[in-house]
Amino acid sequence: MWHEVAYAAINTLLTLFTLVLGVVAFIHCATQRSDAFSAIGTLQKPAWLAIIGVATVLALLTSGSGFGLIFHLIAIAASALYLLDVRPGIRDISNGRGSW
Hints:
Layout: H1 2-30, H2 34-39, H3 45-61, H4 68-93
Helix pairs in contact: 1-3, 1-4, 3-4
């Protein structure tokens, strides 16, 4: 019985973490200029918005199911890749005057 409670708690925390990370990455991406993505040589803004948005929504829709964990990991990886790779590049070319 305790393992069911632990599973539910871990699933809730993972879902919350995925949601927060995805929303932060999506909002940051949405508020940046489109030409900044070309300037740093990465995917275009609509592609990043689609990747982050679809991955996060799929993770939330499958939360608690058998495939939920893989979608959570994909959404976390997509959001983390954006926040740790693309965001610093955009910040560098905007001289720190970006939205963050």
